[in-house]
Amino acid sequence: MVERHTAQESRQGRRGRPVLVVLLVSVGLMIAALAGLMIWQGETAPPDYASQSQAAARTAVTGSGSGAGAAPSGSRSAP
Which of 18, 26, 62, 76 is geometrically suited to a Cys-Cys bond with 69, CB 3.0 to 4.6 A? Predict the structure, then answer.
């Protein structure tokens, strides 16, 4: 004769809080590891040479690191 099992008996494991706790703890550890990696990477990153070269080029052209020159621009000067 064939044995009949209920849905609860045929499952591999029980559902409930233990599975949810393991999932939440693992996601929390992953987020903590990612945050730690990003903090460490930010501290050991090399200087931003692109912005430094842009500021140097701006200073060479306009005479000011902010880009504001002493003379008015051509489009805003009076005729």
Answer: 62
